Amino acid sequence: xxxxxxxxxxxxxxxxxxxxxxxxxxxxxxxxxxxxxxxxxxxxxxxxxxxxxxxxxxxxxxxxxxxxxxxxxxxxxxxxxxxxxxxxxxxxxxxxxxxxxxxxxxxxxxxxxxxxxxxxxxxxxxxxxxxxxxxxxxxxxxxxxxxxxxxxxxxxxxxxxxxxxxxxxxxxxxxxxxxxxxxxxxxxxxxxxxxxxxxxxxxxxxxxxxxxxxxxxxxxxxxxxxxxxxxxxxxxxxxxxxxxxxxxxxxxxxxxxxxxxxxxxxxxxxxxxxxxxxxxxxxxxxxxxxxxxxxxxxxxxxxxxxxxxxxxxxxxxxxxxxxxxxxxxxxxxxxxxxxxxxxxxxxxxxxxxxxxxxxxxxxxxxxxxxxxxxxxxxxxxxxxxxxxxxxxxxxxxxxxxxxxxxx
Length: 407
Known about the structure:
Blueprint: H1 14-24, E1 51-53, E2 72-77, H2 84-100, E3 105-110, H3 115-127, E4 132-135, H4 143-152, E5 156-160, E6 172-176, H5 178-196, E7 202-207, H6 213-226, E8 231-237, H7 243-257, E9 264-267, H8 270-282, E10 292-293, H9 299-307, E11 313-315, H10 318-334, E12 345-348, E13 353-359, E14 362-365, E15 367-369, E16 372-374, H11 376-380, H12 389-394, H13 398-403
Parallel strand pairs: 2-3, 2-4, 4-5, 5-6, 6-13, 7-8, 7-9, 9-10, 14-16
Antiparallel strand pairs: 1-3, 11-14, 12-13, 15-16
Helix pairs in contact: 2-10, 3-4, 5-6, 7-8
């Protein structure tokens, strides 16, 4: 579910090409209007700097422009370790934005968890004349420089999913209540362990990247529930949200406390939950005996939940988040105010109270109950993976799907 782009720039003589086309009669062949691929700044881990997605020719909106052609906005996402960004955030955003602001190009880049690359991608987008930047930062603090640079060019900035700090003031922030995400994870895990473990439960914790403000909020939310009610025998962070980092950490945890030294495992997201579960299996531990929490409702996690290998996840409906971001971006591009009622509050980023759109997360277990919702009532009902959601979930998991009444 990870999409990567890598494109070289060829230097050719257009005079020669045009002359050749005249000679062959090719001039006048009509090029299909639509998506255009462009180049940009440096990128990380094999991903090209970015692409420019067009929605066909159209009038330039108020505030748009740049080079006399269609106006532009930028969508800059942080990484591809988490499947959601390429599989959901980007396509949902682009589809909604094109519907609302036809004729406006979207300059897209994914930084692959490299803050320096994201800085270069932002500079490239600014050089291309974007009028709005939707930025999901790799590092919330260092991204403050990007916002400050954008502001010198009168570029509006939407802080998407993760809060931008660093002394900057983005125009808007859109995300989920991420402190609540951590609470939901901890509440579900605590209820499960309290019902099955005698005495005070012992858990391990693998938090998300310390440079991600959301990870800080998840951790704070989880600790607000766990502290005093469980013994946290080991705790660390996956520096780059990578499953293999979580697997290494869990292997170290198991070596230190032994298989019987913990009752359950908290992970900041489903990718790290998968890494932790892999470490349990390697150590000969049946993950069904160690309730494990994650978030993001990734396909592999839902399959693990149906088979009992993972206890819960947190469902964050990405489509409304991405589409609301697109609505904000289009309104800013046109010089308009957001639709009435869209902004639900303010979040302080250390510099200012940022007008914010905060969406509600949902705790999900196989069958629901104890403050959680079922897979059927959330992921399947919303067709989270598209029209073939059930088919995708149930491929190679027919028995588990029948048991969960998904088929």
